[in-house]
Amino acid sequence: MSYLFLFISAFLAATVLPFYSEVVLFGMIRAGEPAGLLLLVAAVGNTLGSVVNWVLGRYLLRFQHKKWFYFKPAQIEKMQVWFQRYGVWSLLLAWMPIGGDPLTLVAGIMRVNLWLFILLVGIGKTFRYMAVIYFSELSVAWF
Fold first, then answer.
1. How far apart are CA 52 and CA 72, in angstroms?
2. How far apart are CA 41 and CA 50, in angstroms?
3. Are the beta carbons of 60 and 111 closer than 8 angstroms?
4. Is residue 65 scored above 70 in pLDDT?
């Protein structure tokens, strides 16, 4: 059950919803759960949550002429110019707390190949969770 909770928290943390999977991961490390399995569950959940953002971005512009549409045309253009400037490799930074989630949304708008998207985002998010696990285990040793 706790692994399911970790998966869900990692999934939600990758969407536009404010959620923090690192806290759940830290608690499970402190409880002595195996790091390898935790890494796999968190990385897969977080990467799949980013795929949701990619899908939303892919179909987002269909609604840009609606009154309720959140983004202004200038904002969308600015995001697209930024993404074109830094390219698909910027997806390795999708793990960042600030800017990471919008980056995955822009990748959908820019129609980045889904498999390349999953590969790059998955690598970045896996390394982030590896760092969280490393520092969590380090803190367990200290306390």
1. 21
2. 14
3. no
4. yes
